[in-house]
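So, can you check what follows?
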Amino acid sequence: MSHIHIPDGVLPLWLWGAGWLLTLAMVAVAGKLSERSDVRRKVPLIGVVSALMLVAMSSEIVPIAYHINLTVIAGVLLGPVLSVIAAFIVEVILAMLGHGGVTVLGLNTVLIATEMVVGWALFHGLVRLLSRKRVKWSAGIATVITLAITTTMLVGIVALAGSGAAAQRESGALDPSTLSFSNPFASGVFTLGLFGGGQEAEQTPGEQPSAQPAPTTPPAGAGAAVQIDQAAVRRFAAVVYTLGPFGWLVEALITAAIVGYVARVRPSLIWEGALGEVEPVLPAHEVGIH
């Protein structure tokens, strides 16, 4: 998933500061827009969707080091306005649990909110193109495209940050230096690290290290330092673009199944949006049914 698991003190001030400024602006605008509707009725929905995202983002498919996030589902259910608010809530809790530092909370909110909003827009665009009968296909395709876009954004952020950020990427059973897998099921298939910060306490024998340490000093001059940064970023990009498509496919299948089910049992959540007006369901005796 496009979530930056980087501790404080790694990213430069200008980068994480810009992320915070952008996040605060997004949340302020979303708060103003939500005041136009009776958003209080939607607080339970925001809470449930945020909780599902929180659990999903804390769960890892070990062999490919991928965290399912359910952001496209959340975006479809909440719409673009409430998605920004939910993304900020989720990232605050994840930062408190150690999934990334407080300084990167802003950038993480931007990435996750982008996934939700872009996923919402692509889903509805594909529904218009393919019709509502192919809602599952629309959800699956929108998920893959959205995750590819935000993964590219993640690589761009890491490229701006340098090798220190690139070294923080977990690679699961993939060796970043050779792009080869080794003992993919040594640590199992699935782990839940809600309170573990996404890090294992000990390395299982035969398991590849989760991060490559960044060199403390360049071997020769500033030019060599730039080359080291470029090599680290290339390794990072190779890892995420090698492992990512497997995770995108898994998440696309999950998203298609859930969105298809919700569209069948509660279509107003899909087509009207969280801020849309939903007709109340009256008791049977009030509509003349005995």
